[in-house]
Design brief:
The protein is α/β, with parallel strands linked by helices. Helices cover 41% and strands 19% of the residues. It has twelve helices and twelve strands. A hairpin with a 4-residue loop joins strand 6 and strand 7 (146-151). The two termini are 27 Å apart.
Length: 339
């Protein structure tokens, strides 16, 4: 670290894609992005009602890991942290899939618990917003789960992971194609609020946060839909999601086809089908937690892992010592041959 920054790769296996982010880490500086490579794996749509991921998706996953390792090696990455989120973590055949990936690529995929995801994402949001943000509340909607965290420090006092991911709810609660009837939307909204009301009792007992932030592609795309600046305006432009504006969009999203949704500002084709569920969850969170507005934070889980690894290097501690010393099957994979 004294002579040159550490070049670290984080490979995030999500519901829809395998996303490799490479950054240079140096003390006193934010992670400096080097390359971002995203490959479609579509694990969620290949998972049956028994929780089994089918063969074509396993093949796509193996191909994505191979491509990511090759990209990381070509760019001089010293360490690679490969991990999977809820789509693979919760699969019935998870261990078989992980074994196949390791046999084919030499990479052992690790897992973060949902709570660890929430804590690391909170760390990223705290570092981005700084201490002037005061007590902070974080919301993050993924494909399989949703994370919430709140606290006045660098690490949250409360960190939650709930089964309210936009992809999961789309598969289990919405019809395969629009339009989505009002009764169906209301039923999903009631389900979301039921889960949130029970899970957030501890949060409700805390003083209101000074700052409420949201991360994830779902929140970012909803904010753009509701009028936030385009991504090309850069990460330092303020972006917000307004609850009233979001609520007005939900009936319209329910009427539109996936292709029509993709034509809307900010909505990508890969998320068009699940954006309605994401909007219902986002509106539910803001309603239950009495938030009129969420600030969009460009840093999220991957940046949290970069920051955690950098802190470990600076402080001389075990990089696998994640917040609260939670046990986790996650390890650095050096790009030499893995035994």
């Amino acid at each position: 670290m004294k002579d040159a920054p550490l070049r670290l790769g984080v490979l995030d296996i999500g519901s829809n894609s395998a996303h490799l982010r490479i950054a240079d880490l140096a003390p006193g500086l934010p992670p400096t992005g080097v390359r971002s490579v995203k490959t479609a794996v579509r694990l969620a749509e290949a998972t049956d009602r028994h929780g089994v991921i089918h063969r074509p998706a396993v093949g796509r996953l193996i191909g994505a890991v191979r491509e990511s390792v090759a990209s990381a090696a070509a760019l001089g990455v010293g360490e690679l942290i490969p991990f999977a989120t809820s789509a693979l973590r919760d699969a019935a055949n998870r261990d078989d899939v992980v074994g196949e990936v390791r046999a084919a690529t030499g990479v052992r995929l690790g897992f973060l618990t949902g709570e660890q995801e929430a804590r690391l994402t909170f760390l990223a949001a705290r570092r981005w917003r700084g201490w002037s943000a005061g007590p902070l509340l974080l919301a993050d909607i993924g494909g399989g789960s949703m994370e919430l965290a709140v606290g006045a420090g660098e690490h949250p006092d409360i960190a939650l992971s709930l089964p309210l991911g936009a992809g999961r709810l789309t598969r289990h609660h919405l019809p395969p194609s629009p339009p989505v009837p009002k009764s169906t939307r209301r039923a999903l909204s009631a389900h979301v609020r039921s889960v949130l009301n029970e899970a957030t009792l501890g949060i409700a007992q805390l003083p209101p946060p000074a700052t409420a932030v949201a991360t994830s592609k779902t929140f970012a795309q909803l904010a753009r839909l509701c009028g936030a600046p385009k991504a090309k305006a850069g990460p330092y432009r303020e972006r917000h999601l307004d609850r009233g504006e979001l609520r007005r969009w939900i009936p319209r999203l329910a009427r539109l086809s996936d292709a029509e949704r993709t034509a809307l500002p900010g909505i990508k084709a890969s998320r068009a089908r699940q954006i309605l569920a994401g909007a219902i969850v986002a509106e539910g969170v803001m309603d239950v937690l009495r938030l009129d507005r969420l600030a969009i934070c460009p840093w999220a889980l991957r940046e949290g892992l970069f920051l955690h690894r950098l802190d470990a290097l600076v402080e001389g501690r075990d990089p696998e010592d994640l917040p609260e010393h939670s046990p986790v099957v996650l390890r650095d994979v050096h790009l030499r041959a893995v035994p």
